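Notes from hallway chat w/ T.B., transcribed later so I don't forget. T.B. wanted the structure written out for a chain they're using in a teaching module, and asked if we could keep both sequence and structure tokens in one place. Agreed to drop them here.
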Amino acid sequence: MKVLDYKSGVQPFSLSDVYHGLALQLLIYMKAVTAGASPDGNPWKPGGAFYFRIDDPMIQCDDKVVEEVENRLLKEFRMKGLALRDLQVVMAMDSQMEGNSEILPLGVTTQGEFYRASSALSEEEFQALIEHVDALLRDIATEILDGGSRIEPAKTEKLTACQYCRYREICQFDLLFPDNRYREIRHLRDEEVIQAITGTGREVSE
């Protein structure tokens, strides 16, 4: 199964954000569509989950060759997200791929090996990520039902949850109050996230 989430703006994808519960949308969609069985009775498997930007970009270049402009447009529309580390699956999504894909966030060598920087997980890792998201959803639901209402916005190295929040006047978050504190989020490398969700490394703390 492939999930596409259409966005009007630039939406980056980060395994660290998924792990910390800051960007669950794509994986929630994937969890939902893979929950049922396919027509042959076998369970659906994740093939990829991506953000696709809806835009009408203007390309500035000296070369007026149509092919060059089309190539530049493809780069503008290159999707962000996560693919299954399976050559047959990714070739089905981009049959013209040579080296780095122009539409998927990955690349493959002539020997059929994925580039190190590819945003791709094995089936086991992909499933472990979905299960981690499922556990986060259960924790969130339990806290809501228990009446949890802590004023604890997330804070990363680059931004805080308050920067673009429309409810600041209602929340009235203020560090001067003793019970108002940021939830400090440490960015994790992809390898750290994979180790944490598959149990191959130590538990990662925020």
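Follow-up for T.B.: The CA atoms of residues 56 and 184 lie 37 Å apart. Might be a good example for the class.
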